Amino acid sequence: MSTIVFILPFLVFYLVMIVYAERKISAFMQDRLGPMEVGYYGLLQTIADLLKLLQKEDIIPAAADRILFKIAPIIIFVVIFAGFSVIPLSAEWPGAGLQTGVFFLLAIISLDVIGIILAGWSSGNKYSSLGAFRAIAQIISYEVPLTLTVLCVAMFNNTLDLQKISIAQSGNLGLVDWNVVQMPFLFVAWIIFFIASLAESNRAPFDLPEAESELVAGFHTEYSGFRWAIVMLAEYAMMLLVSMLGAVLFFGSWNSPIPGALNGLVWGVFWLVLKSVVLTVLQVWVRWTYPRVRIDQLMNLSWKYLTPAALVLVIITGFWKLWLS
After folding, report:
1. What per-residue confidence (pLDDT) applies to 152?
2. pTM of the full structure
3. pLDDT, mean of residues 116-126
4. Rounded Cα–Cα distance for residues 256 and 173 (Å)
5. Which of 113, 135, 125 is nearest to 221 (CA)?
6. Is 156 exposed, middle or buried (0-12, 13-18, 19+ CB in 10 A)?
7. Among 94, 255, 238, 81, which Cα is nearest to 161's?
8. Long-range contacts of 319-323, Cβ-Cβ distance < 8 Å, separation of 24 or more
9. Is the per-residue pLDDT at 203 higher than 90?
10. In angstroms, how far is CA 245 from the centroid of its own chain?
11. Measured CA angle at 74 (ends 72, 80), to 5 deg
């Protein structure tokens, strides 16, 4: 409950800042200014865009299934938002405290495919339906290597509890106690996890579900105004969720990188948020660096390379634990 109380206002603030940051980062990388007119240095541009979306007309196509069309964006957002409930923010804020927190998180965010297929199919638009099918194929395919990399961490720490995984990385050695340092092979696992998380979040170069140049926004083509904003909010929330999960599993969670210093309730939240924001900015950086892949390249990468590599890492982790025991 404490995590949800913290995340809800933070998520609103994060949404405003990450949209602004993405525009500025992309502008910097492409040697242009980005938003400059609304507010000092364009700081109010995102707020202006949100106000504009709230005022737009809510259009529902005549051929759409009105009930499913309305609830689909809510399903997408709610299941992602529920995933934050098991994220531990500090030693004092363990989140929901589920012993199977990892399993719950992976299971609950997998339900967003239901919202996506409902959004595409209920639109009454065959192109939206095709976009939904392509999105689901992508998400399901990349859940396999992502889950296998998470399994590596669960095997290494002998638990599915995210708080216990965090505690296992605490100590007096700072970042030396982190999983990626304790077992170097987990850094390779994190790379696979990061690539798969880009596909799970529909981020470039795996943003095929929203490839505007090909699908005119894919499964949510027919959405407008606030409902479209909810879909985008869910995408950015997913970016933060997988970044927090990556920080918890691989990079020390809420633990300080400085040996024996800067620990506690406030510092724990600070370190987890800082690590998550850095990983989120890395996702933005990747978007404006690499071109979009084709659908066949997308599937080949998952099934021919990432999944076999993740399986090998699971085997290596098993032997590593046997050797340590």
Report:
1. 96
2. 0.94
3. 92
4. 9
5. 125
6. buried
7. 94
8. 320/156, 320/183, 320/185, 321/155, 321/156, 321/158
9. no
10. 8
11. 110
pLDDT of 3 > 70? The answer is no
**What is the tens place of the pLDDT at every residue in 13-49?**
898 899 999 999 999 999 999 999 999 999 999 999 9
Answer positive or negative: Cα dihedral of 96, 273, 278, 38: positive
- Could you identify the residue written with the tokens 């933005």? 284
The pLDDT score that the predictor gives to residue 6 is 74
Give the model's confidence band at 215: pLDDT under 50 very low, under 70 low, under 90 confident, else very high: low
Please write down the HEC assignment for all residues of the chain: CHHHHHHHHHHHHHHHHHHHHHHHHHHHHCCCCCCCCCCHHHCCHHHHHHHHHHHCCCCCCCCCCHHHHHHHHHHHHHHHHHHHHHCCCCCCCCCCCCCCHHHHHHHHHHCHHHHHHHHHHHCCCHHHHHHHHHHHHHHHHHHHHHHHHHHHHHHHHCCCCHHHHHHHCCCCCHHHHCHHHHCCHHHHHHHHHHHHHHHHCCCCCCCHHHCHHHHCCHHHCCCCHHHHHHHHHHHHHHHHHHHHHHHHHHCCCCCCCCCCCCCCHHHHHHHHHHHHHHHHHHHHHHHCCCCCCCHHHHHHHHHHHHHHHHHHHHHHHHHHHHHHC
Mean pLDDT value across residues 132-153: 94
Q: HSE, CB side, 13 Å, CA atoms: give it for residue 208.
A: 20
> Residue 316 and residue 146: Cα distance in Å, rounded?
16
* pLDDT for the residue numbered 213: 57
Please give the mean pLDDT across all residues of the chain: 90
